[in-house]
Amino acid sequence: MAVVIGIESTAHTFGIGIVKNRKVISNIKRTYATETGGIIPSEAAKHHFHNKHEVYFEALDKASEAGITEDKIDAIAFSQGPGLAPCLLEGMRFAKELALRLKKPLIPVNHCIAHLEIGEIEKAKDPVMLYVSGANTQIIAYAAGKYRVFGETLDIGVGNFIDSFARYAGIGFPGGPAIEKFAKSGKKYIELPYTVKGMDISLSGILTNLKNKIESGNYSLYDLSYSLQETVFAMLVETAERALAHTGKKELLLGGGVACNSRLQEMCKIMCKNRVTGKVKFFCPPKELLVDNGAMIAFLGEKMFKAGIKFSYKELNKVDILPRQRTDDVEVLWKK
Ligand code: AMP
Ligand code: MG
Hints:
There is one protein chain. The chain is of the alpha/beta class. It has two domains: 3-116 and 289-335, ATPase, nucleotide binding domain (Nucleotidyltransferase, domain 5, 2-Layer Sandwich); 126-286, ATPase, nucleotide binding domain (Nucleotidyltransferase, domain 5). Helix content is 41%, strand content 20%. It has ten helices and twelve strands. The strands form three sheets. Strands 3-2-1-4-5 form a five-stranded mixed β-sheet, sandwiched between helices. A five-stranded mixed β-sheet has the order 8-7-6-11-12, with helices on both faces. The protein has a two-stranded antiparallel sheet with strand order 9-10. The longest helix is centred in the C-terminal third of the chain and has 27 residues, at 221-247. The structure holds adenosine monophosphate (AMP) and magnesium ion (MG). Magnesium ion binds at residues 111, 115, 133, 256, 292.
C-alpha cells in the first residue's frame, strides 16, 4: 500500500494529485491563462509560485475525505521534464521542500510517459498514444524495453500551433477551446497544405498559410477554424494509424490538452473502428486526466516507488529538472 503525491508544473498548469494504490484520491490544479498573447514562462512560473500552497492544501483537504492525511504520504513525485525551465523549477523546489519536511523520498517523473501510463485507469493495457498537447506532439508506444517515439512534429506542437493561430486572430491563451467552437460554425472547407512525412508531421508552413489567409480578409474565421481542424487532425490520425500498423498494437490512447477536442476524438474513433486489418480499441481519459495534472504524475510515481526508483530526502542534490528530456531517454525500470 502506498500513498504518493504528484506535482505537475511543466508549463501553464500547477497541479497536485494524490494516488493510493492506483486510485486517484485527489487532483487539484490552477492554470495560467491570458486575455491576449501567449504564455510567458516567467509569468507562468510566478503563477505557480503564488498558487502552490492553495493547490496543496486543497489537494490534502480532498484526500482527507478518504482518510488520507499528510503523515500518510509515502513519497513525493514531480514532473522532471520536458517543459519550461522556470516552471519546472517551481515544481521541483516545492517537491524538495515537501520531501525534506516529511522526510520522504523524491521521485522524478517524465511528463509525457505519465500521460500514457494514466491510460491504465481507462483499462488501456499496451496502447499507441497520440499525445497532443501545447508543446508536445508525439506518437508513443512501448517497444523493446522503452517508450519509443514513432512519430512527432518536426517543428511546433499542435496545441501551440492552434494557440498561435488563435492569437493571430485576436484570441487569448489557450486558443484551442475557442477554435473548436468557431469550427462548429464553419461551412466551407478551405484547402490547406497537408504535411505528413512518414510518421512525422510539420505545422509551421500551415500556420504561415493560415496567417496569410487571415490577413487577406477574404476568409471567415469559422471556415478557417473548421478547415484547420479537418486538415491537421487528419494528419494526426493518419500518422497514429501508421504507428498502429507498424507496431501491430490493438489500442489507441489519446493524451494531452488538444485531445479534449470532440472532433479529434470522433476522427480517432472512426479510424479505430474502420481499420481493414482489424478493429482497434479507442481510449480517451476524462478531461481532468487528459490535460496536464498532478494525478498522472502521482500515478506513475507510485509505480516507480513500488519498483524502488526513488531518491532519499538526504540526497536531493542528486536530482535536477530536465527541460529537454526525451521520452526515449527514460529507463523504464518499473515495467520489468
Ligand atoms: P496541455 O499542454 O496538454 O495541457 O494542453 C494545452 C493545449 O491544449 C493548449 O494549446 C490548448 O489550446 C489545447 N486545447 C485545450 N482544449 C482544446 C480543444 N477543445 N481543442 C483544441 N485544443 C485544445
Ligand atoms: Mg502535457
